[in-house]
Amino acid sequence: MTSLGFNQPLCILPFGHRPSFQTKMFGWEGWLNAAQTAKVLLDPYGRGVVVPKNYSREVARQKGDNAATAMKSVVIDPHPYDWEGDTPLKKPSSRTIVYEMHVRGFTRHPSSGLDENIRGTYAGLIERIPYLWDLGITAVELLPVFQFDAQDCPAGLVNYWGYAPVSFFAPHQTYSSRQDPLGPVNEFRDMVKAVHRAGIEVILDVVFNHTAEGDHNGPTLSFRGFENSAYYILEQDRSRYANYSGCGHTLNANHPIVGRMIVDSLRYWVNEMHVDGFRLDLASILSRDSAGHLMSTPPVLWDIESDPVLAGTKLIAEAWDAAGLYRWAVSSVTVGRSGMAASATISEASSVARMVQ
Q1: 281 tagged catalytic
Q2: Nearest CA among 263, 267, 265 for reference residue 298
Q3: Strand partners, 165
Q4: What's 78-356's CATH class?
Q5: pTM of the full structure
Q6: Which three-class secondary structure state does DSSP give residue 208?
Q7: Choosing from 205, 213, 305, 318, which is the catalytic residue?
Q8: pLDDT tens digits, residue range 312-354?
């Protein structure tokens, strides 16, 4: 066992032929219910997640050990991949036409004309690139592809949209036709490489304002088990989560650990996955401090602006949050989102910090 910095022990355990590991929380003391102790935790920096067929969000809410029904991080090495010279395209924002799509919904129906085994996957999207090229678009914006909790929804339903991340580094497993440990990572990269060959950029819709762990009655899946008050904004009396996201809690984006994780995530998707840009869901939350107050110079936004890896990366800021904080970014192109009350703005990374000025 080894410490992760918050006095939680790390347990490295074998899981069949898959190199997996889990972090277990024993006797965590805090205001959370006792049911939140002895839980398997996902590695916040894990590059892969395996979801067992018997995964249970409900068991993660209940008292006791949930090792048999928990998601688990998968140890993978993402570096051995042949990009064949591919790099992000860096097209000018002034000449960008964005097509927003849901990876699964884009090809899941039989009318896509694809083999059933690749419908609704990254591989299925590759097969439909000629259709996208014919439309004349220059970029696809993928609705959330970070691993999310499909059970984060009312009983009897499935979370379709994916705005419930459990990892900021792992691509969603069920969007891959390959289920080996590296399958989702490499199939996503195959898709990016193929889309780039058609002269089309890849932009990700990313959620850094909340996770799938919900409110005080939600499951313990990862972050709250490591250090609840570091990863989430608490109310002043620390008895409940502050809910600026409308999803039961708010990620504490300007805490040094969380802010670094957000920037590391963006860097990873640019460096290792070759994506061209990001649409930041409820981006105004990134300007709140640990008490929920607006910051004039939010560290996480300045870190994004000054990061050399992210220079030239397209950023789309949804410049509001569920508590009514509106901050507008400087931009050269406005991209409308169907069903949105306010339009999003697209800008280069060097302009993102202006959102809070």
Answers
A1: yes
A2: 263
A3: 148
A4: alpha beta
A5: 0.86
A6: coil
A7: 318
A8: 899 999 988 999 898 654 333 333 333 222 334 444 344 444 4
